[in-house]
């Protein structure tokens, strides 16, 4: 049989095992007793590898090589739960109170911000928050291996990904729960699951443009991979707070978190602020909280750089230590980048370094991200709104295509000509024999001749009724 993963005594994992007449579910209580790597376990025509967090990134490539070539061996990667971290700090809420508490006094900003992609970048799973279909015929990811498929199922109100592997003519595999949804859904979503307090990525992700289940980014089509550890750097950009165990790669205190990028990500932990103003309701001057609008240009940009500036070279302080208004360089070392490289390994297309290449940024002493983006409102995709913000600084008549387009069209859409949709080269999806890369707006704002030509051709097609 295939053991899907280890777990502590509080977690139940349902395992499917082959028997002579079909498929039977057997409930097993599994304890985290393994302390060394198990690899190459032979299950008929499948090779099962149990990988710890460090080994996953060191040896994953070698293990999946057997999944290619004429002597193909079906490969399954499963998590080897590390030994518990000794001397771990007691769980703490970090001073975070969550956006619902902020709403007591800031209802309008709260209601707007909760509709943004930031707020929806991590959520708890439900049939509403998981965008992929669970309907029969639409809930299966058939991989490049004819023996391997992933099924999305609902059981007693909980959602699972079921790995089904045909081995020697018999189905076997295991169920892995949806525990955290990541991604607002514009590009897609991927999903995380816990084994005890250790967090891993599920095999199947959802791609919005295709409206279908896909192998998760970077996964080899045909290899079942449930062993990718979710590192604190991932959660630092996809959540407001999630307390990690110090010294552990992917172990977290499961009751101490604030999902989504919400109020306190930009304003700082709110516990002291809330306590003070509850005791002093007449005091209107904000106490113990950061207003990013009052930060210097450099500190404001660094607040966005944390997640929109590309991969840091190394961490200088523990995850979730940085607070708005502090020097980011004291917490992370970022590479010296002139923005010439579109992507540096994190799925934001290096937005801030690219923006800094733009003439409009270089010619301004005060431009920051919030000049164009209102973090309290859902604005994504509103080309007219963003174009109006361009026109605060750029007269429509200055456009090289003004005579051809006229003022109204320029006011409605500067974006398609000056901020090209480009491939997110660090997100590679392999599925159904295709290799796909989602797109994102390049924040290097300039005259793009090819984009302008495409926009004009699109206008011609609309005018001619095509």
Strand and helix layout:
Layout: E1 12-19, E2 22-29, E3 38-43, E4 46-51, H1 53-64, E5 74-79, H2 99-102, H3 107-113, E6 122-123, E7 140-142, E8 148-155, E9 158-167, E10 170-177, E11 180-182, E12 188-195, E13 198-201, E14 204-207, E15 212-215, E16 224-225, H4 232-238, E17 239-244, E18 252-259, H5 263-267, H6 271-279, H7 297-308, E19 314-315, E20 332-333, H8 351-356, H9 359-362, H10 383-390, H11 402-412, H12 415-418, E21 421-423, E22 429-431, E23 434-436, E24 439-441, H13 449-463
Parallel strand pairs: 4-5, 5-16
Antiparallel strand pairs: 1-2, 1-10, 3-4, 6-11, 7-8, 8-9, 9-10, 11-12, 12-13, 12-14, 14-15, 17-18, 19-20, 21-24, 22-23
Helix tally equals: 13
User: Got a strand count?
Assistant: 24
Terminus-to-terminus distance = 57 Å
Bulk shape = globular
Largest β-sheet summary:
6 strands, antiparallel
Proportion of residues in β-strands: 25-35%
Secondary structure: helix percent: 10-25%
Give the radius of gyration.
24 Å
For the biggest β-sheet, the strand order reads 2-1-10-9-8-7
Mean pLDDT: 86
Question: What does this protein structure show overall?
Answer:
With 466 residues, the chain is of the alpha+beta class. Among the domains are: 12-83 and 115-230, no CATH class; 367-466, no CATH class. 22% of the residues lie in helices and 26% in strands. It has 13 helices and 24 strands. The strands form seven sheets. It has a six-stranded antiparallel sheet, with no helix packed on it. Strands 6, 11, 12, 13, 14 and 15 form a six-stranded antiparallel sheet that branches.
């Amino acid at each position: 049989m295939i053991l899907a993963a280890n777990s502590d005594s509080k977690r139940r994992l349902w395992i499917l095992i082959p028997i002579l007449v079909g498929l039977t579910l057997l409930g097993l209580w599994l304890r985290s007793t393994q302390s060394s790597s198990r690899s190459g376990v032979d299950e008929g025509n499948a090779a099962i590898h149990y990988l710890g967090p460090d080994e996953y990134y060191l040896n994953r490539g070698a293990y999946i090589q057997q999944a290619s070539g004429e002597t193909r061996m079906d490969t399954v990667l499963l998590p080897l739960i590390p030994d518990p971290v000794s001397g771990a700090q007691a769980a703490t809420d970090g001073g975070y109170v969550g956006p619902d508490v902020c709403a007591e006094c800031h209802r309008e900003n709260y209601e707007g911000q909760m509709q943004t992609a930031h707020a929806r970048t991590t959520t708890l799973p439900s049939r509403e928050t998981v965008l992929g279909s669970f309907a029969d015929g639409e809930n299966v990811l058939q991989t490049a291996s004819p023996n391997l498929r992933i099924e999305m199922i609902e059981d007693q109100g909980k959602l699972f990904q079921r790995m089904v592997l045909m081995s020697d003519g018999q189905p076997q595999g295991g169920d892995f729960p949806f525990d955290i949804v990541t991604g607002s859904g514009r590009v897609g979503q991927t999903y995380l699951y816990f084994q005890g307090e250790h967090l891993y990525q599920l095999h199947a992700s959802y791609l919005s443009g295709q409206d279908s289940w896909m192998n998760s980014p970077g996964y080899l089509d045909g290899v079942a991979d449930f062993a990718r550890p979710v590192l604190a750097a991932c959660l630092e950009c996809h959540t407001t707070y999630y307390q990690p165990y110090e010294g552990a790669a992917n172990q977290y205190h499961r009751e101490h978190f604030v999902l989504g990028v919400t109020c306190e990500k930009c304003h700082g932990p709110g516990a002291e602020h809330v306590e003070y103003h509850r005791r002093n309701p007449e005091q209107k001057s904000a106490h113990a909280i950061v207003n990013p609008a009052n930060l210097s240009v450099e500190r404001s940009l660094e607040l966005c750089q944390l997640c929109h500036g590309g991969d840091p070279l190394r961490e200088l302080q523990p995850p979730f230590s940085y607070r708005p208004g502090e020097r980011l360089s004291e917490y992370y070392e970022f590479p010296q980048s002139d923005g010439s490289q579109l992507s540096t390994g994190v799925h934001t297309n290096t937005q801030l370094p690219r923006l800094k290449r733009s003439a409009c940024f270089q010619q301004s002493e005060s431009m920051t991200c919030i000049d164009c983006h209102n973090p309290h409102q859902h604005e994504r995709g509103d080309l007219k709104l963003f174009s109006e913000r361009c026109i605060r600084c750029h007269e429509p008549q200055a456009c090289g295509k003004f005579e051809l387009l006229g003022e109204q069209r320029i006011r409605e859409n500067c974006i398609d000509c000056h901020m090209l949709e480009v491939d997110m080269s660090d997100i590679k999806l392999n599925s159904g024999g295709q290799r796909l890369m989602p797109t994102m707006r390049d924040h290097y704002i300039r005259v793009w001749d090819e984009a302008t030509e495409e926009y004009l051709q699109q206008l011609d097609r609309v005018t001619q009724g095509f």
